[in-house]
Fold:
Amino acid sequence: MISDFISTSITNKKRLFALLIDPDKHTSESLFDICKNANDARVDLIFVGGSLLNNNIDSSIEFIKSHTKIPALLFPGNLLQISDKADGILLLSLISGRNPDLLIGNHVIASSHIKRSNLEVLPTGYILIEGGKTTSVEYMSNTKPIPADKTDIAIATAIAGEMLGLKYIYLEAGSGANNSVNLEMIENVKKNINIPLMVGGGFRTEDDIKKAVTAGADIIVVGTALEQKPQLLPFLVKACHN
Ligand code: 1GP
Structure:
């Protein structure tokens, strides 16, 4: 089970690196390369998802699964991105927003389908934080992010998510954010919850990742920086693991 792998790693003080792959940003050649690099760099998890859906999600995941044994989790940007070819799904409830479809509506539509699949479900409180520009997730979700300096609201939102029974919290600055989630917010959210904390959006350097891990992130998610500079992957993974 992926959830066991995550909790055992965290118990052993190992932080995990999740590589975000947006199938729409890849050709089969670049997907092959990124899978090979992910194996070599010892990436822990692969998240698959994006804001749109141009490439077929089933075939993208089948391709990924045929080139790596790293667990592949759906990170669905919308209902079309559900595929039982993956190992699991981050079932995201956008708890920072007040869009009922993204809090519960889409989950109702997809629940029977997901239940019939073999997907392992990871119920995740998804918290969007202002990242210095309008990101795709903000625009597509039609929700307002929590302002970057409102740590108290982020903490209260994360606590509420945990109280509602969600098993993971994901602090998201948005793909390609100018500013990743600030360290004070990571540290204070982490102090106030007892479930694993994922953090993503705008990480570009080893230093960004080291600082986020030190502040309390259990799982670091990186996508855009590696689309732009795939050669960074081993260094970013190392920064997360050390
Ligand atoms: C986006 O948190 C992820 O949902 C990753 O963000 O693409 O900025 O790395 P980046």
